[in-house]
Amino acid sequence: MSHSAALPAPGLPGLEARFSRVLSVPGRGTDHGLTREWHLLDTGDELARLGVPVAGTVLAVHGNPTWSYLWRRLITESVRAAEAGSPAWRVVAVDQLEMGFSQRTGTHRPLAQRVVDLAACTDALGLNGPVVTLGHDWGGVVSLGWAIDHPAELAGVMLLNTAIHHPEGVPLPAPLRVAGARGVLAASTVRTPAFLETTLALARPALEGAVKDAYRAPYRSPGRREGIGGFVADIPADRRSESFSELERIASGVAALGVPALMLWGPEDPIFSDRYLDDLADRLPHADIHRFEGAGHLLAEDRPYADAVLAWLGDNLDRLTGAPANSRVPAPRPAPSDEPGHAPFTPLWHRLDERRDDEAIAVADMTTRGKAGPRRVSWRQLDDRVRAIASGLSRIGVRKGHRVSLLIPPGPTLTAVVYACLRIGAVVVVADAGLGIRGLTRAVRGSWPDFVIGEAPGLIAARALGWPGVRISAARLPKVSAGALRVSYSLAEIAALGADRQVPEAPDPRDDAAILFTSGSTGPAKGVVYTHAQLSALRDVLGSHFDVTADSGLVTGFAPFALLGPALGTRSVTPDMDVSSPRTLTATAVAAAVRESDARIVFLSPAAILNVVATADDLAPEDRAALARVETFLSTGAPIGAGLLASAGELMPNATPHTPYGMTECLLVTDVTLDGIRSAADEPDAGVCVGPPIGSNRVLISALDADGRATGIPGSGPGVLGEIVVSAAHLKNHYDRLWLTDRDAERETATDQDDAGAPDGAAAAAGAGERWHRTGDVGHLDARGRLWVEGRMPHVIVAATGPIAPVGPEQDVERVAAVRRAAVVGIGPHGLRQAVAVVETVPPTARPGLAGPELSGAVRASTNLPLVAVLAVPRLPTDIRHNSKIDRSRLSRWAERMLAGGRPVAP
């Protein structure tokens, strides 16, 4: 049955009737000789009324079972942007035939016909270009079909969750299988609104009732829903499907597109998962990609996608239209050898090449002590193993740029695999078990590796949780186990395949080398991408600052540095511990590792140090003698105070204790010794002194305004509380698939450097090629250029008197004899927050709740900060990765509940 096109009823939330119209379109294909009526949203008339020049057209195509209402925010916000003076983009959002308020023709419309339909519509509109397509769901496929058929008009492509290829032998996503099943299709898509309602329920957060009603408006009766069923029935599940060949044609054509591309993705989509994003990324390797963690299928409802779309159009205006862009777009970075002040590039495996005939120990692993004693690997063995694995990986198809997720604990095996991957240009993905199963799953799926190499626990998790990638086991597995875990190779088999040790050409210094994940302590863990040049720069700054030589020897109880021993040309030992839980390291395990390696340098995390100090009484005389030979001791991972550092230093009486400051994005920024901390103790500064920048590193401060935002121009003036901004040769390249995060950081940096000359010239003097990173940490510089860390930006308490950083008051409270550790958090509305102290006591309190009068009085007297309450807990919650960073956000929520009369449960 045919129904003419119509206009939506007025009053749909967010949709202005003035943009809605019906267009008569001469039909094509099976509609040849007929006229079809399309409903669409179009900003063209409004832009003409405003009299603004139009840069081009965004052609937006919805999927199934939505309609052009999906794009309402882009419609209105694009007009507002034009009114504000930004380059104007006409937005045309169509309702596909059989969908929305367009005509119901009563005819079958496979994918090829829908692509022809869209071309007929754009011809009727007279769109001549430049056109940027925008599609979601099956509208993404249709829009890409139009894109490859209109190269003269096409300027760019933009996509929200969609797919243009489905691997053979892999079932369709469950919702589509169920909806398309024989006997279910009509009932779930046409006779009832079940498919529509299921789709609307995917929004995160849930849609308001009025918005749901707006999506339902064109689909009130079975006759109006036939297009929904037709779309599902036409899904090309395999080669037998009518539209399979058209989908193949589109997929092949997309891989040939060289126009700018943007992909915005909701990773919680049960239909179009990251599998499809990865396929699109392979076809459009130049695309800008941003994954909105927590968002799902209806990304256009879940997140401010319109802001991202308009920002991208503005940033790429010159490439899309030939006109100047309205914002700074960073130029490609020069090769390391071209950058002034940088040493010639040498790859991380350079020392392996130099020492390939050396029989001295390169790597030892003490975690195997309970099985067969320490595992020792010589330089010759390590180089031989690296070359064999590199050659074998190449033979099974691992290529430059392929992602290899490593689920192996630190030790000789992980070291060999990492260096093998680096040698052939594969990108190692390192997300440690400290993230927890949920965080690890998010990290692995987000990076979507091509290969996964792991020990049995990691492979079991990969199988159970559906992680992607060809699976390789670190050890040989029984045939049945390998089959159950879908393991294709073992490392032994890989090494045997690479028996000739022929390694492919080395990657370029500017190629991506590694993706390391942040701790996730203040939000979902982000993948931090390093190039080969940046990893080598990290090696160089570490080796130079701490004077690492071939005879130094390293004990590495902190995972990120466990892999750098071979790069530095010195032996390294992993002590006996659970590397995913630093607090399992004991003093005797450190002493044993020092004896094993004759190490002069020890790396530990703050959580590990706590237990090392706590177990010091277990040390035997020979243990203490070994520790007395240590010359340098480093606590890395989070700033620690003088007391804990001194306690650890007492175990290594001849070592100089250091506590460098850094983050996953830039692992070594500043450094301070115990003597430096003690000398700083007499200063009036609040926070933890982490010392001056190392080498050529730079640190600036962006001052906080009264609302707690870092809006100040970064500078080096003393005593200014603000966000810490850093620059270094080893600063990360970018975040993985977080284009918007990188873009905002680049814009802030560009503005800062443009404006910095007037206040103090610090940023302007940095040089055109220097890059900066806003750390999310808050602190200040003192008159001697030392950095003081005072907390995290999200933990700043914005009170009526202004922003308050937590660390200074926490230090005051921790001087109370009965307090082991303290956290100062805010409760109440933003701008009127009140401070609460939450303390761990000595001895520990049995139950969480209000502190007793004596303890409360002592805590209040210790600080000038007005406290509305003092709460005591058996243990302060920490992040799961470092076991040392206090989770203040969690404590703040808990304190609010407790003081509102909630149950006295632990935070």
What descriptive keywords fit this protein?
8-stranded mixed sheet, globular, alpha/beta, Rossmann fold, single chain, Luciferase, domain 3, 20% strand, 907 residues
C-alpha end-to-end distance: 61 Å
Q: Into which percent range does the helicity of residues fall?
A: 25-40%
Please state how the strands of the largest beta sheet are arranged side by side. 1-2-4-3-5-6-7-8
Number of structurally distinct domains: 4
CATH architecture of the largest domain: 3-Layer(aba) Sandwich
CATH topology grouping of the largest domain: Rossmann fold
Q: What does the radius of gyration come to?
A: 30 Å
What is the typical, i.e. mean, pLDDT? 89
Structure in words:
The chain is an alpha/beta fold and 907 residues long. It has four domains: 17-321, Alpha/Beta hydrolase fold, catalytic domain (Rossmann fold, 3-Layer(aba) Sandwich); 350-532, 3-Layer(aba) Sandwich (Rossmann fold); 676-730 and 749-792, Luciferase, Domain 3 (Luciferase, domain 3, Roll), CATH 2.30.38.10; 796-899, GMP Synthetase, Chain A, domain 3 (2-Layer Sandwich), CATH 3.30.300. Helices cover 34% and strands 20% of the residues. It is built from 33 helices and 36 strands. The protein has an eight-stranded mixed beta sheet with strand order 1-2-4-3-5-6-7-8, with helices on both faces. Strands 15-14-13-11-12-16-17-28 form an eight-stranded mixed beta sheet, with helices on both faces. Strands 10-9-19-18-20-21-22 form a seven-stranded mixed beta sheet. A hairpin with a 2-residue loop joins β23 and β24. α3 packs across α4 (138-149), α17 (379-395) crosses α18 and α17 packs across α22. The longest helix is centred in the middle third of the chain and has 17 residues, at 379-395. The chain is globular. Mean pLDDT is 89; it is low at 325-341 and 754-768.
